[in-house]
Design brief:
Structural class: mainly alpha
Distance between the termini: 91 Å
Largest sheet: none
Number of helices: 2
Order of helices and strands: HH
Radius of gyration: 28 Å
Helix content: over 70%
Strand content: under 5%
């Protein structure tokens, strides 16, 4: 009985590994080792970070200008 359970366990494990490999291949259409959706998400995150950086720099510049004007008015 133990051998039967062990055999079924190995068979199930092999099937899961096969399905996992199929899923990986399906998600990585360009075959670069990175799932395409993850690559897209990473690129979008980098673009969002760059846009945020630009906005922060602009806000900083405007604040400095306003503070400079306030100092010259005082």
């Amino acid at each position: 009985m133990l051998q039967r359970v062990s055999g079924k366990s190995r068979s199930a494990t092999a099937e899961v590994e096969k399905r996992l490999q199929e899923l990986k291949e399906k998600l990585d259409q360009d075959k670069n080792g990175i799932p395409d959706k993850l690559k897209e998400l990473s690129e979008k995150a980098a673009q969002a970070a760059e846009a945020a950086k630009v906005k922060v720099e602009e806000a900083s510049r405007l604040l400095k200008e306003r503070l400079g004007k306030r100092d010259s008015q005082a």
